[in-house]
Design a protein that fits this description.
Belongs to the GPN-loop GTPase family. This protein has helices at 39-46, 112-116, 135-144, 162-169, 185-208; strands spanning 25-33, 55-57, 79-81, 85-90, 95-101, 121-126, 148-153, 177-180. The protein has five helices and eight strands; from the N terminus they run βαββββαβαβαβα.
Length: 215
């Protein structure tokens, strides 16, 4: 999708702050999903620093492999993430949030398990025109026991109901499903807030769960 970022200048990095050495508690969130669903755009839109990215120019070697089916907004895609994207958000003087955007192509999926290590939670970003591209991400997160939410990025595709999306992705009823525009900083922030609220809900439920004592 178009990488134009609302509310800030991608070229000049207006409003971005410098890294400081005061934080001593880093919280990690991973953004995963299929090829071209907007992971780099989301990290770029919400990070307070100029994001680190590992985008490389797409070449003829990727023809027939990194395909988007000629979907609108993706046919002109000329670069792709080959390792990960990295962004940062300061929560307070001692706590920072680190964002890692995982590469979407199948040939880079071997990197995901390492990215998931130490992760607080994850956002599965989906394009409703290509929901099947998100199955692997959900499967790996469930395999690792990593809490996650699903965010539908707005590409102007068919208007599926939340129930239809849940059924297509076989989502557990407890997994939140939210809408977003990854180009918008506020919308991307809302996605992260939804994830944090989900993590809090899971934590409270765990605390209130009956304790099993060894006999």
């Amino acid at each position: 999708m178009d990488s134009a970022i609302s509310e800030r200048s991608a070229a000049g990095g207006a409003g971005r702050s410098e890294l400081t050495a005061t934080a001593d508690n880093g919280l990690k969130i991973v953004v995963v999903g299929g090829f071209g669903v907007g992971k780099t755009t989301l990290v770029r839109s919400v990070s307070e620093i100029r994001p680190l990215n590992t985008e490389e120019t797409m070449t003829q070697a990727g023809r027939g492999i990194d395909e988007t089916g000629g979907l609108a907004g993706l046919g002109a895609k000329t670069s792709t993430t080959v390792a990960f994207d990295f962004g940062r958000i300061t929560l307070d003087a001692r706590n920072v949030l680190y964002l890692f955007g995982a590469p979407g192509q199948e040939r880079f999926w071997f990197l995901w398990d390492r990215l998931f290590a130490g992760t607080l939670g994850a956002v599965v970003l989906v394009d409703t025109r290509r929901l099947s591209d998100s199955w692997y991400a959900i499967d790996r997160l469930e395999h690792h026991g990593t809490p996650f939410i699903v965010a539908r990025n707005d590409f102007g595709g068919p208007a599926y109901t939340p129930e239809q999306v849940r059924e297509a992705l076989d989502l557990d009823p407890g997994v939140p499903l939210v809408d977003c525009d990854a180009r918008s900083r506020q919308s991307s922030k809302d996605v992260l807030i939804a994830l944090v609220e989900h993590l809090k809900t899971l934590y409270v439920a765990q605390l209130n769960a009956p304790q099993e004592y060894a006999q």
